[in-house]
Design brief:
Blueprint (H helix, E strand, L loop, with lengths): L1 E6 L20 H8 L2 E4 L1 H4 L4 H10 L5 E5 L2 H6 L6 H11 L6 E7 L8 H8 L8 E4 L8 H9 L3 E2 L1 E4 L2 E2 L10 E7 L10 H14 L6 E5 L6 H15 L18
Parallel strand pairs: 1-2, 1-10, 2-3, 3-4, 4-5, 5-6, 7-9, 9-10
Antiparallel strand pairs: 7-8
Helix pairs in contact: 6-7, 8-9
């Protein structure tokens, strides 16, 4: 099963492209959740919402909706994985208000944070077994057997990431679910993805994960509604190849150049 969505839903330039012109912004989440079955929440990285906010998101979305949440930068960029117990506990104390809507927790590491597998292991062991965790290292020193072993032992996914149509991380399968982030394509209008690039990612996910293993796919190329267009195109290619995919809008919005 491929769960396809975008990284966030509150983008003003999506008005008129995805959101109706007259739809109040306070209803955008409901509109988004009618079209997609999952979203990745990035604003928790910058400012962790209160528990009541997560609870409200749960109340405003359908039963089959899934919210992946990016870990607060306090743990990853300020503490740099040191003394993780309090930041992880505070995060879980709020994000778990999503209940069964809570999807994977995205732990994105700073680009200048070199490998420290002991610190990563100490962090991952703090998450309960029923919370999926996806880790996105961004320094090349992490690409070692030791890193892979920690991820496998803690049943955490290595994030597969794409920029300009190319993988920026090893395509390791480290657990029973996948997590793909698409940051920027090479097609026009910028930052769209072309069909060849999208089709390649469909094939890579299908080769690595079975039909009953979830693969979360989030488009982070939000300018001009490119993420919406590409998510719809990705889902169509996956369905055409015979894979199960969560809902996407029935037709793409206008292209990023209007």
């Amino acid at each position: 099963m491929m769960l396809v969505g975008t990284s966030g839903w509150q983008y003003r330039d999506w008005r008129g492209r995805f959101y109706p012109e007259r739809l109040p912004q306070r209803l955008w989440l409901e509109h988004f959740a009618a079209g997609f079955a999952t979203v990745e929440v990035n604003n928790a990285f910058y400012r962790l919402p209160e528990r009541d906010t997560f609870a409200a998101w749960r109340a405003r979305t359908p039963d089959d909706f899934c919210v992946a949440v990016k870990m607060s930068r306090y743990l990853t960029h300020i503490k740099r994985l040191r003394e993780p117990a309090e930041p992880v506990a505070r995060f879980l104390g709020r994000a778990t208000a999503l209940g069964d809507r809570l999807g994977p927790v995205l732990v994105q590491l700073p680009p200048n944070l070199q490998a420290d597998v002991d610190a990563l292991d100490a962090t991952l062991r703090l998450f309960p077994a029923d919370v999926r965790v996806a880790v996105e290292p961004r320094h090349p020193s992490w690409w070692t057997d030791a890193t892979r072993r920690v991820l496998e032992q803690r049943r955490a996914a290595l994030v597969w990431a794409d920029r300009l149509g190319r993988p920026v991380a090893p395509r390791w399968r480290t657990t029973d679910f996948g997590y793909l982030r698409l940051h920027e394509g090479r097609a026009r209008p910028w930052p769209r993805y072309g069909r060849t690039a999208l089709g390649s990612w469909v094939s890579r996910l299908a080769d690595a994960f079975g039909p009953d293993e979830p693969a979360y796919v989030y488009f982070n190329n939000d300018p001009g509604g490119a993420a919406i267009v590409d998510a719809v195109a990705f889902a169509a290619l996956a369905r055409r190849a015979g894979h199960r995919v969560t809902r996407v809008p029935s037709a793409p919005p206008p292209s990023a150049d209007g």
